[in-house]
Amino acid sequence: MPDFDAINTALVARFAAAAITPPTGYDNVKISTGDLPTGMLPLPCVLVFPEEGAFSHHPGKRHMVAEWIVRFYYNQSGDLERDTAALRKWLTVLVGQLQGAVSLGGIINGEVHITGFNVGTFVYATQDYTGIELSLQLVVNEPWSPVA
Known about the structure:
Layout: H1 4-14, E1 31-33, E2 45-58, E3 61-75, H2 80-95, E4 110-124, E5 127-143
Parallel strand pairs: 1-2
Antiparallel strand pairs: 2-3, 3-5, 4-5
C-alpha cells in the first residue's frame, strides 16, 4: 500500500523554504505543510494535499496514479493585477522544484510530474489570496500479492 503520509512529507519537503531560492527581491516561503490549518499561515506559504487517485491491478503488481495539489499562497490582497508579475516569477521557481528530480525517494517507488498550473485568486478560510496552484501526478508501481 502506498504510504500517503510519506508522499505528503516528500512533496512538502520539495516546496519547503530550505529547498527554494525565491525570485530576486521576494520573501521566501515561510512555511510548507500538508497539515491544512484552520486559518491561513504566514505568507507566502505552500499547502500540499491529495486530490484523487486510482489503482489498477496486474499479476504481481499494483499501479496507482494519484493527483496532488500544491498551492502557493502569495498575498491576501486578492489583487491579481498587482501581483501578476510576482506570480510569474514565482511560477518559474515552483515549477523548477520538480525539474530533473521526479523521484520522491525513500519508500516511495514512483515518479511525480507537474501536469498543469493555474495562476489566480484562491479562497482559503473564506479569504481571497493570490497564488499559484500546481497539479501533480504521482505514478507508483509496487509489488502486490493478493491473499484470499
